[in-house]
Specification:
By secondary structure, the protein is α/β, with parallel strands linked by helices. The protein is 39% helix and 16% strand. The protein folds into 2 domains: 189 residues, Glycogen Phosphorylase B (Rossmann fold, 3-Layer(aba) Sandwich), CATH 3.40.50; 182 residues, Rossmann fold. The relative contact order is 0.12.
């Protein structure tokens, strides 16, 4: 049997700060170099995490003007490098990757990754239906499609007609070996000092500042929460960046929240803020598997989140490890947060239960399932937990 390493080519648009970007970086950092030779192909070599790519990973910049035009360039790279496996780690780039694989007439194993609900509130049916038809045709050419949650896996079967045998659910490798150290790292922002947190609880939110995350509902909920607790000062710290930042800051001002809401921007280690938070809030309209909720739970912090498709209800056991509320319901979000703020014992119990539950998202188990997808072996043979 050959001892040659499996040549894996990972493809995505950029390496920014989203969940899929972080998962890609984790794969680049942790896949066994004795078994895998790694190449990363980017439409554009930009993004917050580019500087963190391991030095032994060959990075190819396609210099394409946009994702939709990247297929011919990617096909040339596939023909030249002749990888054993081509894997796309961005749901929005899967069709381009399949097209390039076909143009290259490659025999490489083709693995796609779907990371969000296939029907989303931020996309009109006029856009969704053509996308689903295209994905239905293209995804059938893949040898395997990884789904970030059981809900997304169900979508792949019901919406795209993929057989279950070609779908593997792979949770994000969130709880890494250095997680405890990252959570314990110091925070310089004055709101997070022990003395200030004892005086003014800090609620934390984390994620890209884009429409699908529905931060306006969160800000309205926070305004309602402050009115419901007039004798208790509260603060909300939002981590992440994106095109909606300016509009959200203006909205916070219009709600008279400017002094109690801060936008901290992107931080490569959000866990250090979560570990010092009283609660984590999430108001998304759609998710795949929300890594932020997993990170907070692993820090022992309870979460109040919208019950959107698909991930939150797979991570949170409602009433035990956190609270789920209807999508877009600011009042319900505020009421749930208030209930937890008024009950320190319940917060402690939920945080402890969440920390235990999130151990299923250990990186070692996720990586074993990714290896199974890359190599075409069974999940059981890979050593991954079911």
């Amino acid at each position: 049997m050959s001892n040659a390493r499996t040549r894996v080519m990972l493809f995505r648009p950029t390496l920014a700060d989203g969940g899929a970007d972080r998962v890609t970086l984790t794969l680049l950092e942790t896949l066994d170099r004795k078994r895998f030779e790694l190449t990363l192909v980017l439409v554009k070599k930009t993004g917050a995490l580019v500087s963190a790519i391991p030095a032994d990973v060959d990075v190819i910049d396609l210099h394409a003007s946009r994702l939709a035009l990247a297929a011919p360039a990617l096909a040339r790279v596939i023909r030249q490098r002749k990888p054993d496996v081509v894997m796309c780690t961005a749901g929005g780039a899967n069709v381009v990757c399949v097209t390039a694989h076909g143009l290259a007439r490659s025999n490489a194993r083709l693995v796609l990754s779907e990371r969000s609900a296939l029907r989303r509130a931020d996309r009109a049916n006029l856009r969704t239906m053509p996308e689903l038809l295209l994905k239905r045709a293209m995804y059938r050419r893949a040898d395997a499609v990884t789904a970030v949650s059981d809900g997304v896996a169900h979508d792949l079967q019901t919406e795209l007609g993929l057989p279950a045998s070609r779908i593997i659910t792979v949770y994000n490798p969130v709880v890494t070996d250095d997680f405890a150290a990252l959570a314990a790292a110091p925070v310089e922002h004055p709101w997070f000092s022990d003395a200030e947190r004892a005086r003014v609880p800090v609620l934390v939110a984390c994620g890209r500042l884009v429409a699908i995350k529905d931060y306006p509902t969160m800000l309205v909920a926070f305004a309602q929460l402050r009115r419901a607790m007039p004798n208790q000062p509260l603060r909300l710290a939002i981590l992440g960046h994106g095109p909606d930042r300016g509009a959200l800051q203006d909205f916070a001002v219009s709600l008279r929240l400017a002094e109690d809401v801060t936008f901290l921007g992107f931080d490569p280690n959000p866990m250090r803020y979560m570990a010092r938070a009283t609660l984590l809030l999430q108001s998304s309209q759609a998710e795949g598997l929300p890594g932020v909720i997993i990170q907070a739970g692993a820090c022992g912090v309870p979460v109040v989140a919208t019950d959107c498709d698909h991930g939150p209800r797979e991570v949170i056991e409602h009433g035990t490890t956190g609270i789920l509320v209807p999508v877009g319901d600011a009042e319900a979000l505020a009421d749930a947060a208030r209930a937890l703020l008024l009950d320190p014992q319940l917060r402690q119990q939920m945080g402890a239960a969440a920390k235990l539950r999130t151990q299923r998202y250990r990186a070692s188990e996720s990586l074993a399932r990714y290896e199974a997808a890359l190599l075409g072996t069974s999940v059981a043979a890979s050593g991954a937990a079911a």
